[in-house]
Design goal:
Chains A, B: Belongs to the class IV-like SAM-binding methyltransferase superfamily. RNA methyltransferase TrmH family. Chains A, B: Keywords: Methyltransferase, Transferase. Chains A, B: InterPro entries: Alpha/beta_knot_MTases (IPR029028), MRM3-like_sub_bind (IPR053888), Ribosomal_eL30-like_sf (IPR029064), rRNA_Methyltransferase (IPR051259), SpoU_MeTrfase (IPR001537), tRNA_m1G_MTases_N (IPR029026). By secondary structure, the first copy, chain A, is of the alpha/beta class. The first copy, chain A, has 2 domains: about 80 residues, 60s Ribosomal Protein L30, Chain: A; about 140 residues, SPOUT methyltransferase, trefoil knot domain (Alpha/beta knot, 3-Layer(aba) Sandwich). Helices cover about 35% and strands about 25% of the residues of chain A. Chain A is built from 9 helices and 10 strands. In chain A, helix 5 packs parallel to helix 6 and helix 5 packs parallel to helix 9. The longest helix of chain A has 14 residues. Chain A is elongated, with a radius of gyration of 20 Å. At the A-B interface, helix 5 and helix 9 of A face helix 5 and helix 9 of B.
Chain lengths: ~240, ~240
C-alpha cells in the first residue's frame, strides 16, 4: 500500500530541486534495482508487486495500479525503489577522463555513463548546466552502471585548468582521430547536442580531433553519444 | 486549416499497417523536412505554422493548436510533412553492409541509419521483424540521413546465403575486434536489444567479434547502437 504522501514524494523526484531537497532518486525495474542493491548506494524504500527481493526486509508490496501511480515509465516494471543520492568518492586522477559541456539529453548522458563503465573510465565530469545524472531517464538508460562511475558536476573551465593534462575536444574540423596519437592520461571533452563545445571551453582544448566523414557532405553530425563511443574506443584500443 | 480527415490520416500513420495502406510516412521539423525535400523522396503534403518553405507551392498553413493535434512530438516543431514511402533503389553489393536481426527500438534503428550515412554504408538490411524504418520515432532519430541509405526488409537467413561474403557478428564471447582483420567487403550483423543475434542467424556467422570490456565484470553489455558505432568505425578506419 502506497500512501498519498509517498506518491507525492516519489512523483516530485522527477524534478532536480526535489531530488536535491530530499536527497533521493528513483530506480525502476528489478534488474536495475538489484544493481543498486549490490553497490554502495543506500536503499531508502522499495515498492514491488511481488516478492522479488528476498534479501530486503523492508518491502512495500503494491498493486499494479498503485505502481502505475508512482512510476515514470509508460510500462511500469514490477518494482520501483528510492535510493539516497550519494557523495561520490574521491576520484583517482589517472587514465582517460570524460568531460561533457552542457549535455542536455538524459538518454545521451545515460548512454555515456554506460560507456564509461564498459571502458573503465572512472571519472565523468559534467558542466554545471548538464542534465542531472539522477534524472529518472538517465538512471533508466545507465542500466545500473552509474553505480560504478564517479560523476562530478563542476565548473569545467576551472576543472580543466587544475588538471595539467592534454585536453582533447571533438570538433567537426578537428584532426582525424584515426591519425592522432592518443595518450593514456588525458581529458576528452564532448559538447552540447546542438551547439557542440562552448567557446570558453574550446579555448582550453589542446588537441582538436574528429571522426572522419566517409559519406555525403550533407550528412548531419553524429549523435554525441555515438561520437563519444568511437572516440573513447580509439583512446582505449591502444 | 487541417481537416478532420487529414487529422485522422496523419495520426493513423503512427501504425505500420496504415503507413503501408496509404504509402505515406511523417516527417517533423523544418530541418528534417528540408533534407527530404532535397532528396528523391516525394512530398505528399506539408503543414507549417509559417512560410518556411519558399520552394514549395502547396503548403497548408496551420495554427500551433492544429499542429499539436497532428504532431507525434511533445513539443511540435513548426512543421509536419507527409512523404511517400519509396521503393528503395537497387543496392550496390559492395563495401560493408550492416544487418540487424530483430532490432526493436526505434531510436536505435534511427541512430544506426545516421551512422550508416556518416560512414557511407549504402546498404542496411533489416530482418522482417525489425522495427519499421518509417516509424515516426525512427524518422526523427535519423535527422534526414534515411534519404541517403538503402534500407531493405527481408529474410536475413536467405539474404546472407545469397551474398557469399564473410559474415561478422557481434557476440559477448567473440574475438576482440581490435585484433581482427576486417575486410572491405563484408556483412556485419547486430542483434536484438535483449537477446542478441538469434540462433539461426548465428549459425551463418563466420567471424564472431566483440568489443573488449575494460571495466568491472558486472558491466551490462553496451547498447546495440553504441556497439554498432564502434564496430563500424573499426571496419572503416583501415
Amino acid at each position: 500500500m502506497v500512501s498519498k504522501s509517498q506518491i507525492k514524494l516519489i512523483t516530485s523526484l522527477s524534478q532536480k530541486k526535489y531530488r536535491q531537497q530530499h536527497g533521493l532518486f528513483v530506480v525502476e525495474g528489478i534488474k536495475g534495482i538489484q544493481e543498486f542493491l549490490k553497490s554502495d548506494f543506500k536503499l531508502h524504500s522499495l515498492f514491488t508487486v511481488e516478492g522479488f527481493f528476498t534479501d530486503v526486509t523492508d518491502i512495500t508490496v503494491v498493486s499494479e495500479t498503485e505502481l502505475k501511480k508512482i512510476s515514470f515509465l509508460k510500462t511500469p516494471q514490477k518494482a520501483l525503489a528510492l535510493f539516497a543520492i550519494p557523495i561520490f568518492k574521491e576520484k583517482k586522477k589517472q587514465g582517460l577522463q570524460l568531460l561533457v559541456d552542457d549535455l542536455r539529453d538524459p538518454g545521451n548522458l545515460g548512454t555515456l555513463i554506460r560507456l564509461c563503465d564498459w571502458f573503465n573510465i572512472e571519472n565523468l565530469i559534467c558542466s554545471n548546466h548538464s542534465v542531472d545524472c539522477f534524472n529518472p531517464k538517465v538512471i533508466q538508460a545507465t542500466m545500473g552502471s552509474i553505480t560504478r562511475v564517479n560523476i562530478t558536476y563542476t565548473d569545467l573551465n576551472n576543472y580543466i585548468s587544475q588538471q595539467n593534462l592534454p585536453v582533447y575536444g571533438a570538433f567537426m574540423d578537428g584532426v582525424s582521430v584515426y591519425e592522432s596519437q592518443l595518450p593514456d592520461n588525458a581529458l576528452l571533452i564532448l559538447g552540447n547536442e546542438a551547439n557542440g563545445i562552448s567557446d570558453t571551453i574550446a579555448e582550453k582544448v589542446t588537441h582538436r580531433i574528429s571522426i572522419p566523414q566517409f559519406g555525403n557532405a550533407n550528412t548531419e553530425s553524429l549523435n554525441v553519444a555515438i561520437a563519444g563511443a568511437i572516440l573513447v574506443s580509439e583512446f582505449k584500443r591502444g
